[in-house]
Request: fold
Amino acid sequence: EIVMTQSPATLSVSPGERATLSCRASQSVSSNLAWYQQKPGQAPRLLIYGASTRATGIPARFSGSGSGTEFTLTISSLQSEDFAVYYCQQYNNWWTFGQGTKVEIK
Amino acid sequence: QITLKESGPTLVKPTQTLTLTCTFSGFSLSTSGVGVGWIRQPPGKALEWLALIYWDDDKRYSPSLKSRLTITKDTSKNQVVLTMTNMDPVDTATYYCAHKLLYQGWFDPWGQGTLVTVSS
Reply:
C-alpha cells in the first residue's frame, strides 16, 4: 500500500497570506495525485487532479505541483472560505489518502 | 448535475452487518466508464477508500477490508449498495459514496455522507 504523508498537520496563516501544503508518497505515484478540500460537516471537494490541473470551478489561487513522491498545494492568497482541511490522494496504485493538513486562521 | 446521497442505519451493534445505500442522479451506471466508490472517515481522522464498482460490474475492494465488504449495483434504481460484516466500534465513521470515471483516479463529486456509530 502506498502511504501518503502530509505536512504540516496544522498550518496557521493570516488571511491574504500564502499557504504551502506538502504531500509525500512512500513510492512514486507519477502525477497521479489529487487534492481535496473539506470543511466541517461537509464532504470533500475536488480541487486538483493530475497533480496540477484545477477542477472545474476552482479559483486560480489554488495551484498544485510536483511529481513522483513530492507534491505541493499552494493557496496564493488565503480567503476566509479557504480555512479548511486539505487531503491529498494518490491513484497510481489503488486509492489512498493522506492524513490531512488543517489550515487555520492565525 | 451529478448528486449522490447515502442512506442507512445510524447505529449498529458490534458483530452486526452494515448495509448502506448510495442513491444517485445525473449519471447512469449502465454508461461505459462510470463507477461509484465508497470512502469512510472516522471522527477527526483521515479518509479511507473502501470499495468501488464500475458499469461493467467490475468490483474493487480495499485489501485490508476485502473479506468484510460486498458492493453491488442496481442500475434500474440508480443505486449502489455496500455491505460490511462483523462491525466493530473502530468502524464508527462517516461513510461517503462518490462518482468516479474509469480513466480518472479521483472521486468527484461526493455525497454528503452518513454517520454510522457502532456501539452496543
